[in-house]
Input
Amino acid sequence: MSDTAHLVAGHSTGEAVTRAARIGGPDVVLTDEQVTDFVAEQLAAVDLDGKSVCVVVPDGTRSCPLPLLLSAVHGALSGRVSRLTGLIALGTHAAMGERELGAHLGCPEGGLEERYPGLTVLNHAWWEPSTFASLGTISADRVGELSGGLLHHGAEVRLNRAVVEHDVVLVVGPVFPHEVVGFSGGNKYFFPGVAGADIIDLSHWLGALISSAEIIGTRGITPVRALIDEAAALIPSRRLALCVVAQSGSGALHAASFGTPEEAWAAAADVSAETHVRYLDAPVKRVLSIMPEKYEDIWTAAKGFYKLEPVVADGGEVILYAPHVREISAMHPEIAEIGYHCRDYFTKQWDRFKGLHWGVLAHSTHLRGAGTWDEQHGERLRVTVTLATGIPEEVVRGANLNHLAPSEVDIEAFTADPDTLVVPRAGEVLFRLR
Output
């Protein structure tokens, strides 16, 4: 192990305290050489010779220096393993084409074989039933235990068969504050990253019941993390993870950790909590979230709301400024029909909505934020959500959101306004009140 690597305690769901190797920390920026050496040292110490290995990596909606990481992994495993597969954890996002994959993995279109000889790269084809293998079920009673009584509903655990058809599965990806699970990463790359709809819907609806504002950035094992870990325990392959903490807005890394997904995630989440959370002394009346182009629709660009909702005053507003966004969701058009509503709008009219995809309902509540609903007063929402995008006004208002023409957004004027917080490259850093 290199001089800069050390052991840190993990937060395992089991009784024993586990440990992961980690390099870097909150106030560190790692060099490419440090990262490559760390990956090589960690993988050299694992019995992988002659084994088949599936490497699960994020899609383009997650920031991290993936070409650096995948090159390090490829260099450490090429010639040692019998088969090497890269699996893009789309969740339910759109598939990445050859040009997008090339840019994502650091090579020209069609140049994957030259950059990573022997590596087969697959999109997680979540729309194809043949993609999945069934690992078993989690009972309603067990879900009740894991959720603290919030939800009593069983689910079949289906996972991309590429994971279970390899001897070893290695998760490679970043950790950030997350609106469903607390902090992303680790076993979340399996569920929902390469999972079937049942467990995705269940986990996301559990997060919605707790609420995004309550769970986002919560350290340790949240009920949703406990559910995901329970599902991951059914995977027959050996599970490992390389979890990293990226410097938001750049390709640099603060830290990398290696171990089981539970261990490596816990070590990285501790660093993410110190680097990806900003604190304000008082709430703000308005936020202008400027969304990067990697968020191609509102389904993904909604992170500009999740990460800012906690610092907006009652009656305030979040403006998602994304002129490049042309649709609410390419993969989930039903969200435009349901619209965006608070949690109580659904739970208090459950017979009306329970037959829909719970993951879609969860996304709806996450973007609409806190509020109440009753038959007498209807829906009352804590903050206003405004889209300044390329989506037609009638579509935006039909989805129960406010509309603002992008041409009317004067970033300099908003920046000069003492009541407005302007956030460039929104979507990754969480803002909280002290």
